[in-house]
Amino acid sequence: MNNPLGMMQGRLSPRSDGRYQSHPVMHWQNEFFVAKTLGLQLIEFILDSWSLEHNPLLTNEGRAEIQRVMKRSGVGVKSICADIFMDYTFASDNDIHDPAQALSLLEQLIHIADELDIQDIVIPCVDRSSLPDDVSQARFIERISPLCQLAVNHGVRINIEADWEPQTFARVLDGIGRDKVWVNYDIGNSASLGFDPREEFAAYGHNISDLHIKDRKLHDASVVLGTGDADFDFIIQWLQQNQFSGHMIFQAARADDYIDDLQLVRSQIAWFKQRWQEIANG
Fold first, then answer.
1. Contacting residues for 77 by C-beta, under 8 A, at least 6 apart
2. Which of these, 36, 131, 185, 199, could form a disulfide with 136 (CB 3.0-4.6 Å)?
3. How far apart are CA 198 and CA 112, in angstroms?
4. Please, which residues bridge with residue 185 across strands?
5. Phi then psi for 229, rounded to 5 degrees?
6. Which of these, 196, 163, 162, 202, lies nearest to 181 by C-alpha position?
7. Which residues are CB-contacts of 110 (< 8 A; sequence separation ≥ 6)?
8. What is the Cα 51 distance to its own chain's centre?
9. How far apart are CA 121 and CA 45, in angstroms?
10. What's the pLDDT at 228?
């Protein structure tokens, strides 16, 4: 396996106030060294509204500390999961969610990513930032397109994570321009939505830059890898045949207890690596 494997930030720490996934304010440095012991090469950083004022991405001192920790641990950061954009939304007409705030923050984040040599910024269009209709999608395309071009100019890729069916997703990508925008593909979320990965990969497989490794049952929550409805065999085979070179980030099911959680993480990493090798060997 040549692809760099990573872990979503917050999943190698005790939960913060019971949150399933968030920036671990008190533990973020330690996660790099835990990831190293697990044989991982990357941490996908999280920027969320819950811990915004404490996130090291947003200060000069914090970014210097990120660089020191990466150097000491040998574990890098090549992607940012910008969950902040579930609250600072681009396409809302609600005065509470002023799109100017989102646009300004994304512009700042592009410059930060350039400074830290981070390649991918993941923009969620799911859950409370979902864009379910043509009007909201058109508004999103209009507002975010100039910043997608800015990102390209800085060597950064904007990745969209969305709950759209494949044809809608393809239309949005075409509206922005496939040379300016990429896809975050979440294996488990697509399985939960009941999408056929054959249709998804036909529509935008070659635009995927950042991959989240997760398993879910149809219309249900995350489960241990290999026990849900995700078609891992097809997806892994497609990635191998098409020489996918992007980042693969574990975002799999968690246990309630921290020690049990780390054991579950280790076993799911082993399962995925084994399945990848089995399919590679035919």
1. 42, 43, 44, 45, 66, 70, 116, 118
2. 131
3. 35
4. 211
5. -100, 5
6. 162
7. 121, 147, 150, 151, 154, 156
8. 18
9. 10
10. 97
In this structure, of 89-93, 139-143, 205-209, the range with the lowest mean pLDDT score is 89-93
Partners of residue 248 on adjacent β-strands: 5, 211
Q: Which of 179, 144, 21 is nearest to 136 (CA)?
A: 144
Q: Is residue 245 exposed (0-12), middle (13-18) or buried (19+ Cβ within 10 Å)?
A: exposed
pLDDT digits (tens, 9 = 90+) for 33-72: 999 999 999 999 999 988 889 999 999 999 999 999 999 9
Question: How much of the chain is in helix, strand and coil states, percent to nearest 5?
Answer: 50, 15, 35
270, 233 Cβ separation under 8 angstroms: no
Check pLDDT > 90 for residue 92: no
Three-state secondary structure call for residue 78:
strand
8 Å CB contact between 273 and 30: no
3-state secondary structure of 249: strand
Question: What tokens were used for 9?
Answer: 């930030």
Which residues, including other chains, have CB under 8 Å from residue 202's CB and lie 6 or more apart? 166
Non-local (6+) Cβ contacts of 244 within 8 A are: 3, 208, 211, 238
H helix intervals, the chain:
28-37, 60-73, 99-116, 134-153, 166-176, 187-193, 197-204, 232-241, 258-280
User: Please, are residues 72 and 37 in contact by the beta-carbon 8 Å criterion?
Assistant: no
Amino acid at 225: L
Q: What is the mean pLDDT of residues 3-31?
A: 84
Q: What predicted TM-score, i.e. pTM, was given to this entire model?
A: 0.95
**Per-residue pLDDT at 252:** 83
